[in-house]
């Protein structure tokens, strides 16, 4: 029932439900009381642990979902006037030397790239994820077309994930928490979520993120350095063997040089 109440096509205006609540429970009826009841009932989605405040206005239950996870107005990122693309997947970025790190955050949108480390809050994939996300994105397309936080986020994740290999890698980093049981199903879900969605422009901090990641990948030194680490220093034993070979080579060179000068 809870999931059905969140579907966009099932919505009644909140003021209608408020009126019905008043008729059924006149002694308990006020807007904030009903809002608090709604916050508690749908608390599974309340990532910021927000409290129901009198100044919070929602149109219907689906409207609660972005309310739970979109930053407060004073912290919201402005939109740019362009559509920058992330050109490489998670595994491609990793092979180029980008480190991936899961971070704790109340908002899944807080993705940062600092000093070669891409920091991403975990994304849980379960049987609710697809339905809930599609309804939020549909709501953004109709009401929040200038503040499409979920849409921007899903386009970013879709750029990082192209094959099951990307899902396997991100699950290994605990950035994806897959309760679906099948990484191929997770890959298919993420790649299909943004189909039919109009993407007008991306938020400014994501434009900056895309530019940084693309520049990092295009830097040939980063890729050579990553290849060197992967081929010769991927494990302590391999690193020790590589160092031993280098030392042996240096000693051989010194011995040869000494023999020549004698």
UniProtKB/TrEMBL annotation:
It comes from the Eukaryota. InterPro entries: DUF247_pln (IPR004158). The keyword Membrane applies. The keyword Transmembrane applies. Keywords: Membrane, Transmembrane, Transmembrane helix. This is Upf0481 protein. It comes from Quercus suber (Cork oak). The chain crosses the membrane at residues 237-261.
